Amino acid sequence: MTIADIRKTTEAKMDQSIGAFKSNLTKIRTGRANPALLDTLQIDYYGTLMPINQVANVSLLDSRTISIQPWEKGMGAKIEKAIRESDLGLNPASMGDLIRVPMPPMSEERRKELTKVVKSEGEGAKIAVRNLRRDGNEAVKKLVKDKLASEDDQKRAEAEIQKVTDRHIAEIDQLVAAKEQDIMAV
C-alpha cells in the first residue's frame, strides 16, 4: 500500500462517517414533518419485522403532516400501533385507508434538548474522523518503519491527512449549525 492509497482510503472512510452522521441527523425531529422520521419503524408483517417503507407509501400531506398509505387493507392498524409504541411521541389518526400523522409543535425546552442531541452526534462524528486520521497516520508511520517511504514523505502525508481531517470536521460543524438552526426555528 502506498501513501496515496492510504490517503484515499482515509478520505473515503471519513466521507462514509459524514454520510452516517447525515443519516443520523435526518432521524432527529424538527418542527416540520419529514418522512425519514419513520424510517426506523419496524412493522409486524405476517410475523416478520419490515421497515415501514416496505409495507406502505410514506409521504407528506403538508409541512406538519405525514401521510401513510398501506399497501394492504389489514396493515393500517399494525402501522398505527407501531407508531404509537415508538419513542417518537406521535399520535396517528386513521381516515379510511389513509393514516395521517400530525407533527405536534415542540416546546422550547424540547428544542434545546434536541440541539444537545445534535451536538453530541456531531462530537461522535468528529471523534470518528479523528480516529480515522490517527489510523491513516499510523499506516504512514508503518511504511516509514518498513523503509517503504522516507520521513519527508511521512511529513507530507501527515499534513495532507490533516487537511482532509480539517475539511471533514468543518463540514460536520456546518451540518450541526444548520440542524440546530432548523430545530430552533419556530
Automatic annotation (TrEMBL):
Keyword Magnesium: no
Gene3D superfamilies: 3.30.1360.40, Ribosome-recycling factor (1.10.132.20)
Keywords annotated in UniProt: Cytoplasm, Protein biosynthesis
Main subcellular location of this protein, as a coarse class: cytoplasm
UniProt record, GO biological process: cytoplasmic translational termination
Subcellular location: Cytoplasm
InterPro entries according to UniProt: Ribosome_recyc_fac (IPR002661), Ribosome_recyc_fac_dom (IPR023584), RRF_sf (IPR036191)
Domain annotation Ribosome recycling factor: ranges: 21-184
GO CC annotation: cytosol
Alphabetized GO MF terms: ribosomal large subunit binding
Keyword Protein biosynthesis: yes
Cited function: Responsible for the release of ribosomes from messenger RNA at the termination of protein biosynthesis. May increase the efficiency of translation by recycling ribosomes from one round of translation to another.
Sequence similarity: Belongs to the RRF family.
NCBIfam families (alphabetical): frr
PANTHER family according to UniProt: MITOCHONDRIAL RIBOSOME RECYCLING FACTOR PSEUDO 1, RIBOSOME RECYCLING FACTOR
Protein name: Ribosome-recycling factor
The organism of origin for this protein: Rhodoferax sediminis
Lineage: Bacteria, Pseudomonadati, Pseudomonadota, Betaproteobacteria, Burkholderiales
Underlying gene: frr
